[in-house]
Amino acid sequence: KAFEIKWDEFQIYEDKKLGEGAYGIVFQGALVNNSTKMVAIKTVKPGVEKSILLALLSELKVMIHLDIHEHIVALIGACTEFLRDGRVYILVEYCPMGNLQDHLRKQDKNAMYMDITDFKSPALSPVSLEDENFYGDTDILNYKLLVKWSIQIARGMQHLESKKVIHGDLATRNILLYNKSHVKITDFGLSRQLLDCDNYVKKSENKLPWRWLALESLKSNVFTHKSDVWSYGVTLWEIFTLGLIPYPGMRWTTDFMSFLEQNLRLSKPLYASDEMYKLLMRCWDVEPNNRPGFKELEQLLLVQR
Ligand code: ADE
């Protein structure tokens, strides 16, 4: 109950839709108790099935369990007073620059400004990971910034792992930009908190993010921290291609599974170094135990800068 927020303590800007999924919508809004603080408000579309409402409540439960972390979108509170009418509102911290997928794809000029020589000699222009304002007011992307985001996502994922939470849907669409050099992980809609078993077997579901899923998740619906590592690799592939769709041109058929079973993988992103591509390939090892953990991934990336 510590997170309960009353209906008259916030406003929803219904004309400012931030995102929309199959059954959830995210609006911009504001807390209006003491000061006015911008928030993002996640709710369900009117008249959805009870199971969808329950899914949003389970997402809320995961978020309460997660505590504060600088690379996880913070829960501000929730309004559950209309639960019987089929309505719930989850208030989270507002990330003004939207999601990473849109940001990567946004400017065509991104690709022009990305200096190919940048990643061939990363030692040339050292920049501190903590130096938030190094890039000034420009939207120009460069190799160091892409690595910085990757490190931050690995740190957020270490926090999830320490809380025994499997994300289950890690992708750039679920990474938000708090500012241009600070990203946060969001959308725990498909996440599961592990209780006593160390992996989670999901019942068949119709809409799976198959391009991001590990082979064992596709084959046997098994979700573990190591299947999150696979998705992390696909997320980094999106980052280092500046937002391409993984497996371009492929569609969801059983052929996709045999593609992976033949040990075929995503090709090397245009903006990835050889070392970076080696790291991605390790995330997609058929054997989950051979994949690096999030701590090791952070350490490998810290020497890539
Ligand atoms: N889209 C989805 N969630 C969001 C948030 N918390 N801030 C900004 N845009 C979002």
UniProtKB/TrEMBL annotation:
It comes from Allacma fusca. It is found in: Endomembrane system; Membrane. ATP binds at residue 42. The chain holds residues 560 to 864 of 893 of the full protein. Residues 12-305 form the Protein kinase domain. This is Receptor protein-tyrosine kinase.
